[in-house]
UniProtKB/TrEMBL annotation:
PANTHER family: D-THREO-ALDOSE 1-DEHYDROGENASE, NADP-DEPENDENT OXIDOREDUCTASE DOMAIN-CONTAINING PROTEIN
One Pfam family matching this protein: Aldo_ket_red
InterPro entries: AKR2_Oxidoreductase, NAD(P)_OxRdtase_dom_sf, NADP_OxRdtase_dom
Occurrences of domain NADP-dependent oxidoreductase (ranges): 15-315
Organism classification: Bacteria, Bacillati, Bacillota, Bacilli, Bacillales
Name of this chain's protein: Aldo/keto reductase
Length: 327
């Protein structure tokens, strides 16, 4: 396992880590026993960082992390997110009182005294511009309830604004072969300012595994069913904003990336890791097998300059105009 620093913080994390949305909820059927086994396998293989949120299974993923990391608080870092349990458009939700409540509730579920990285969960730009939430986070940092804070954003514009705030240590962004815009518009400034990048949705909700057919069906409680067109939340969080059938077609055109790299999953994760600005890529998982397959990306051969250019051209010519929603 290789480790990278999150911006200017003292958090040195595994370059391939894991997000826990899928084991919390909204990704179909889960098995807590399998989830805990998978978390153990990840840690046994050097993963020392996990990303979660208070709304993943209404706190369930935080509780699973508490069980999995018990007695390992000094060696396993956790990032969690807040705000979406309430009205994300209400300025009152970001007051010191409410942000403190969110923080203390996550601390209880995580069974920790401090949160390594506390992130605002995809807030509207208007809320960020008000500034109160950053003042609240500064206070929590002074109190020792959080070590660092960051922002999970939907758009490059939100990311650029967030980086202007002096104590923002990290940005979490959607970044994958289908969503390359941050590499051009955001990453250079993040590196210049010493802000870490966490790459979420790296497999485009599974499209970049190359396993889906156009007639694929998803369970009723899987966001790939109920949010495929943005009915529940930002459409970019599901299939990277691509219409599903079009995404399947585009994924077929990328089958070549798997050559010599095992499969498309490993190749797609390897591509994200080619970007130096990325502190960690955080794919999701539900099984031990998925954890092992994702970890195998670390052994996949790097992409050549010509291959990287080919993928950038593919994005510019065939994908960029197909993405739905602001990003």
């Amino acid at each position: 396992m290789n480790y990278r620093q999150i911006g200017n913080t003292d958090l040195k994390v595994s370059e391939l880590s894991f997000g826990t949305w899928a084991i919390g909820g909204s990704w179909g059927t889960t098995d807590d026993r399998e989830s805990l086994k998978a978390l153990d396998v990840a840690m046994d293989n050097g993963v020392n960082f996990f990303d979660t949120a208070d709304v993943y299974g209404e706190g369930h993923s935080e509780e699973l992390l508490a069980k999995a990391t018990k007695g390992k608080h000094d060696e396993i870092h956790i990032a969690t997110k807040f705000a979406r349990a309430g009205d994300i458009n209400d300025p009152a939700a970001y007051s010191l009182e409410n942000v403190t409540k969110y923080c203390e509730a996550s601390l209880r579920r995580l069974e920790r005294e401090s949160i390594d990285l506390f992130q605002i969960h995809c807030p509207p730009l208007e809320i960020l511009k008000r500034g109160e939430v950053f003042e609240a986070l500064d206070r929590l940092k002074e109190q020792g309830k959080i070590r660092y804070y960051g922002v999970s954003v939907e758009t490059v514009e939100e990311g650029l604004f967030s980086m202007e705030q002096p104590n923002v240590s990290a940005l979490q962004v959607i970044f994958n072969i289908f969503r390359q815009k941050p590499a051009f518009d955001l990453f250079p400034q993040a590196q210049e300012k010493g802000v870490g990048i966490l790459a979420r949705v790296p497999l485009a909700s599974g499209l970049l595994t190359g396993k889906f057919q156009k007639d694929a069906a998803f369970e009723a409680d899987d966001h790939r069913n109920f949010n495929r067109d943005g009915a529940a939340f930002n459409v970019g969080e599901t299939f990277a904003g691509l219409e599903f059938n079009r995404g399947v077609e585009l994924s077929r055109e990328l089958a070549w990336i798997a050559e010599g790299r095992g499969n498309m999953t490993r190749a797609a994760l390897r591509w994200v890791l080619e970007h130096d600005a990325v502190s960690s890529v955080i794919p999701g998982f539900k099984t031990v097998a998925q954890v092992k397959d994702n970890l195998a990306a670390l052994e996949a051969p790097a992409f050549s300059r010509e291959e990287m250019q080919r993928l950038e051209q593919f994005y510019q010519e065939k994908v960029h105009a197909e993405i739905r929603g602001a990003y």
